Amino acid sequence: MNISLKNISFSYSDSLDDAILKNLNLEIRSGECVVLAGESGCGKTTISKLINGLIPHYHSGTMDGDVQLGDKNTADMTLAEISRCVGSVFQNPRSQFFNIDTDCELAFGCENLGMDPEEIKQRVENVVQEFHLEHLLGRSIFNLSGGEKQKIACASVSATGPEIFVLDEPSANLDLKTIADLKEIVSRWKKAGKTVVIVEHRLYYLRDVADRICYVKDGQIAYEWTPAKLEAKGAEYAASLGLRCMNLEQLGDGDMMCHSRRLSSLDGDDRESPTKSVTFSNITFSYHRKHPILDIDRLELPCGQIMALIGHNGAGKSTLAQVLCGLQGSWRQKRAARKRGAYLIMQDVNHQLFTESVLEEILLGMDPPNENAALEILEGLNLKQFVEEHPMSLSGGQKQRVAIGSGVSNGRDVVVFDEPTSGLDYRQMLAVSSTLKKLAEQGKTLLVITHDPEFILNSCQSVIRMEHGKIEEQYPLSGNEKRLIKTMTEL
User: Is the pTM of this model over 0.85?
Assistant: First the structure.
C-alpha cells in the first residue's frame, strides 16, 4: 500500500508558527522499507503518527496538507479503519499493552479485529515461531524485561497482518541477537510485499533491508540515501548529522571512537586507575519465591569508572539494578542504606519524571537546590532550551536525557543507568557519554546496562557480562574491543 504525505505542516499547538513539520513531502511506495532518521526531536515520531492516524484523530494540534494511505485520506478514515491496514509498534511498548499476560496480548489485536478463533490461534502460533517467543509464553507482562516487551509488541502487531508497519525505535531496548531477529522479521514483511516505515537511530541492522534512509531536519526531508550511499560517505559524515554508524564491524577497529573512551586519556591526564571500589556480596533475589532471578556471590565495582553491564534480554540485568539501588529485595535496614547511596535511572523514564518543568526535575534531587548547577547539567545534555517545558511533553530521547540529568544532580555515590542511550542519536549519545565521564572523574561509581556497542566503546573502561542471573565474566575493555563486538553479536 502506498503512503503519501503532501505539503504537511503540523504543530502540537493551535498555531503553525512553531510547527515541527513544515511543508513536508514524502512518497513511500508499496512494498518499500523506508527509515526515518535524524536527531532526537526532529519530528520523526510525528511523521509516524501521521501515518498511523494518531494525528489528527488522537493528538490535538494544527495541521495543513494531506496524508493518504492508498487512495484514502486519513482525515476521512476512522482510527478503527486505519488500524486494519496500519500496524504500529510504539517507542514505549508498555503504552500499547491491553492484557496482563503474553498469550492474551499476542492474540488481542486479532480478537479486536473480529477474526475467527481458529485463525487467531494459527496466527499466534506463527508469530511465536517467527519471533522465537516460546520462552515468553504464559508470562506476566509486568515481569518482562524491556527488550522482551518490545518483542511481544512487534509480534502482536505482526499477527494482525496489516499492509503497512510503522515502527518507532523498535531496537531501542533489544540485545544484538534480538535485533538480528527483528531484521529477519522486517525482511519477511518486505518479501511479503508489506510497506515498512521505521523511525530509528540504529541504522546498521537495516543496511541490507532498507530501500531508503530519509533524513529529517528543520521540519522537512532534508536528504535521502540508499544505505550503500550513506555508508560510502563514511562514519564522520554520518556523525556530523547526528547519525549512528552503518556498519557495526567498523566499531572494533579502534580508529573510529575508541580513542576517546579511556578516562586516563582525557585532557592529557595520565592518572592511574582508581583502586577504591564498591563491593556487593551474596546477591540473591526471586519473584514470589520462585526460582532465583539473581544468584551472585560477589560484584566489585571500581570507583571512578564507567562499567558496561551486558547480557541477553531477560538475563536479570534490570533486576540487579533494582536490587543494587534498594528498590527490590534484602532486609529493611540494608535496603534503606542502598537507597541512600545509589540511584537508578530506569529503562522507562516515564516512571521517574515528576515535576512541571525540566528545570524543576533537575532541582528536585539537589540538596540544597542550586539553579546554576542545574542549568550547567542541562547545558551539558543539550537540554537548556527546554528548561520551562513539561518533561512529559518532550520526545522519548529528550525525556531520557532529563532523567539522566536528575541522576547527575542527586549526588549519590553509585549511579546505575538502565539503557541510557535508547532513543538517542549519535550527537546526544556523545553528550550523555561526556556527562558520565565527568561523574567518573569525580569518583562516582557508574554501572550502565546497555545493548549499545557504540556507547560502550566511547565511554566504558570495563565490561561485565551477565547470564541467567549470574556474572559470567568481567574484563577491561582496553585491548578487548573486538572481543566485545563478537560477544554482543552472539548474545
Answer: no
